[in-house]
Amino acid sequence: MLRFGRVLLCALLGTTLLFGARHLASSAQAEPAPLKIGFLLDSLEVERWQTDTQVFQKRAKELGAQVLLETAEGSDDRQYQQAQKLLDDGVKSLVIVPHDTDRAVQIVTLAKAKGVPVVSYDRLIRNSGINYFIGVDSVKIGEIQAQWLVKRAPKGNYVLVEGSPTDINARLLREGQKKVLKPYLDRGDIKIVGDVWCANWNPLEAYTHMVKLIAANHGRITAVVASNDGTAGGAVQALQEAKLAGKVLVSGQDADLAAVIRLLKGTQTMTVYKPLSSEAIQAADVAVSLAKGKTPPTAQSISVGGKNVPAFLDMVEVVTKDNVMQTVIKDGFQNLDTIKKSLPPDEWPK
Asked: SS3 of 330, please?
């Protein structure tokens, strides 16, 4: 009888262990590994990319995806190596903010060879096999910047402070700016006394160029068409040192905190606001869909390498000292309390 009890106990234990093993195996099958999305950034130095990254990661997590993030800090070779690493780590789609939009074609080719779809984000990678583009019409932004300034100063000496020569967006912005300025230049109403590039959109380069141009023109500068808020900041610093800040019109782009403060202080004239949260959310949505083998429908497209590629082109808005409350603060892009801490009460937005 004792022996029979031992046999029965062993049988029960075996059944329990077998059931437990099957239950664990079933649980493991019910919880698959999260979908991996690769996000390649040029740099996190500029404020806007920090915002994009945070929103992108949050949205991807909500969709059940894991973001593998790499930042190249301005190195094309490093960005290529990072792309290889992400592809080896098993990402199912790749979102790229390229440093050099021409050299990034190699990354697209590498990803496509592995069957991984690619989203070109904000900076269009031309002559490539990208699956989707998400960004804005940079030519239009350049037009808006120049139009805003010439409306207020239709005559005088202008300086063009462009971004990185390796960034297609910088070239497209310049194209839009020149398109607006051309009739004024042809009539002789406006003269371009400086047309400079800033490697990696470096504000220090903008500052250095402006110091030289202010001296060369004996301070006779009417407007600075700065392509983004970082270059605008460098230009404004040089103007401040020459006691010209607030007297010279200055454009910008991105609605950075420092730029919004300059708008309220009167040292920068305008900035172009892109709803970055909307852009980043759309990028995450598209990246996850592509990773699942789907292509989200869109009514928009852009010509890339001789074919139309699905695209999401966001709207933009001009921000000045008069509409800060109704734009970037209303959208939650900038914080009113933070702005107030940086300015005296008479300069607070209304």
From this structure: coil
